[in-house]
Design brief:
This protein is mainly α and about 120 residues long. It has helices at about 10-20, 20-115. The protein is rod-shaped and about 140 Å long. Keywords: Membrane, Transmembrane, Transmembrane helix.
Length: about 120
């Protein structure tokens, strides 16, 4: 129970005062509290940083996906408009050519009829 260097003639009260100073206990507890507080603060800061990084990554991914979707939609709309314009031009050309051919045939028939 007592250290080997503890003299037998020293009473218990002196031993306790010498080897178990209440101030030492308070200082030790203070150091433990400070260490615990520092560890908790570090953990909280790390968690906050990780959450912020995750949120930033998610926002960047969402923005990239939205931009890609918008670009694809614009490309699809442009392709559809071009196809519609080409179809309209082809239909108008066919109608015009058909009208010109019918007009020419009518002139030919009129000329043949007159002759």
């Amino acid at each position: 129970m007592y250290p080997k260097s503890f003299p037998c003639h020293v009473n218990h009260s002196t031993f306790v005062k010498k080897y178990f100073n209440p101030l030492d206990k308070i200082l030790t507890e203070s150091v433990v509290v400070v260490v615990v507080v520092v560890v908790v603060v570090v953990v909280v800061v790390v968690v906050i940083v990780v959450v912020v990084v995750v949120v930033v990554v998610v926002v960047v991914v969402v923005v990239v996906v939205v931009v890609v979707v918008v670009v694809v939609m614009v490309v699809v709309v442009v392709v559809v408009v071009v196809v519609v314009v080409v179809v309209i031009v082809v239909v108008v050309a066919i109608v015009v050519v058909t009208a010109v051919v019918i007009e020419a045939l009518m002139h030919v028939f009129v000329i043949i009829w007159i002759l």
